[in-house]
Amino acid sequence: PILYSYFRSSCSWRVRIALALKGISYDLVPVNLLKDGGQQFSAEFKAVNPMQQVPALKIDGITLSQSLAIIHYLEDTRPNPRLLPQDPKKRAQVRMIADHIVSGIQPLQNLSVLRQMGEKKMEWAQNCIASGFQALEQILQHTAGRYSVGDEVSMADLCLVPQVSNAERFRVDMGPYPTITRINKALLELEAFKVSHPSQQPDTPAELRA
User: How far apart are CA 55 and CA 33, in angstroms?
Assistant: First the structure.
């Protein structure tokens, strides 16, 4: 497998966690979203992903983009350890939380949107994340065990950790979100989350390495 990734991309990080949890080795091709006006806009990368976004994964003779589509494919083809619970209600809760983050929070504060916001980008990102986290905190109070849904790591957790990292980068006050904070801390203790962390990637700048 070949993963096209950017160290700081939360969407790429979700996929790196899934690959690590499932023990899938891969070659990494860095795509720097800032360098050269954004390497994702190159003709070479557009041939890989016409949406000109990371991540993209070449695996089993196909090329997939969109982080959840990639993770669902890995789940379908390499089911252990599973990232979706077998219980239909818990499975729906996992998908709900993942979609809440992937559709309702992250796109509003991603690079392409922030570029449009100019000087207001920090305030915009903080507001988008805070309003999303207010809802997420309430949801997790009903679904969480050790992790987002019960005591097993799920697709919801793969979305949660990168989004908390974004919140910290945009200096969001995490005080009002104790459940999110507790789950995030527990997940960051797991090896798959450590090795996939932005501070550990081949394309991480020296000053940001752990």
Answer: 11
Which pLDDT belongs to residue 159? Answer: 98
How far apart CA 83 and CA 75 sit, in angstroms, is 7
Tell me the domains of the chain and their CATH numbers: 2-81 (3.40.30.10), 88-193 (1.20.1050.10)
Q: What is the rounded CA–CA span in Å between residue 5 and residue 54?
A: 6
What whole-number distance in Å separates Cα of residue 174 and Cα of residue 171? Answer: 9
Cα–Cα distance measured from residue 64 to residue 85, given in angstroms and rounded to the nearest whole number: 23
Coil, strand or helix at 56:
strand
pTM given for the model: 0.95
Q: Using an 8 Å Cβ cutoff, are 8 and 34 in contact?
A: no
Residue 107 has pLDDT above 90, yes or no: no
